[in-house]
Amino acid sequence: MSISIPALAEELKPYVGRSERTDLGIMRKETFQRFAISADNLNPIFFEPEAARAAGYSDVVAPPLYLSAVRNWQIGPPQDGLRPDGTTSHEFAFLPLEGLRIMGGGQDLDFHAPVTDGTRVSMELRLDGVELKRGRSGDLLLIKVTQIYRDAADRPLVTCRETFIAR
Amino acid sequence: MHGHQLCFEDLKTGSALTPLVKRPTTVQLFRFSAVTWNAHRIHFDKPYAGTEGYPDVLVQAHLHGSFLFQAVADWAGPRARVTAFRWQNRGIAIAGDILTCTGTVAKAEGGAVECELEERNQKGDLCASGWARVELPRRG
Asked: What does each C-alpha distance from B4 to A45, A130, B1, B8, B80 come to in angstroms?
């Protein structure tokens, strides 16, 4: 667990500007409706086709925060592959972030088009920047990423910019 | 409060959003963690959360975001479109807290409004701040 944050900052620099695209699979209404229920958001445009059509959509739509709220679209590791706090860094795909504690604190989102039942979604993760902060409580990294979610026709659905704190 | 529809002409700078009040429970936090495949124990394991110095399980960052988003979308109505949204977590909230989302129109121009948003707990502490751009239908 002796990770050198300054050394990792250097190691991450060549990755800035690089991106990787992952297929997230086909979105199903039952899954995004579960998300809506768990968020206590019972807007009928998520559940009732007639209400969705009356609102100008072709069918029920996913809550717009759904795609970027799922922390890991992969299956994830077995339990003994999780860290003691239950987290995993698997969601960061190609970035060498094993062993770090990573915290998000918000997102900056553009919504381009709605997600409906049957939409096949891919996600491009791009590293925009890495900044080393040296503070009294220790070193930390600010990791800036952009995630672009697209449908099978390559049309953007959601763009999500996020800065993670890693220590 | 679904179905009511605001139009662009209804709003001007300073217009207030309808407040949205949420009281997340441990069951809600568990289900939100499950559906987002988030096994971070601070959200469902109170004894573990205590080891990190928290008084109870924490509301997820994205659940704060979802509450703020819902406040805007429900207020604007089903034919409005939130085209951009951001939020930032400012303080923790735990299961049982009463979270109130409020907001005001900061700009109204060209058929769209920009709103500044806040989520505060029952003590008035700021838990999250946000911003949204909403395109609205025109009257008539």
From this structure: 13, 44, 7, 13, 11
Residues 30-59 of B with CB under 8 A from A: 31-32, 34-42, 45, 48, 52
Phi-psi region of A157 (alpha: psi -120 to 50; beta: other; left: phi over 0): alpha
pTM of the entire structure?
A: 0.94
Task: State the sign of the Cα–Cα–Cα–Cα dihedral B27, B33, B34, B35.
Answer: positive
A118 CB-near residues (< 8 Å, 6+ apart):
A26, A27, A28
Tens digit of each residue's pLDDT (9 = 90 or more) over A127-163: 999 999 987 878 999 999 999 999 999 999 999 999 9
The complex's ipTM works out to 0.96
Per the CB < 8 A criterion, the answer to whether A83 and A103 are in contact is no
Tell me how close the Cα of A43 comes to any Cα of chain B, in angstroms: 6
Residue range A16-58, pLDDT digits in tens: 999 999 999 999 999 999 999 999 999 999 999 999 999 999 9
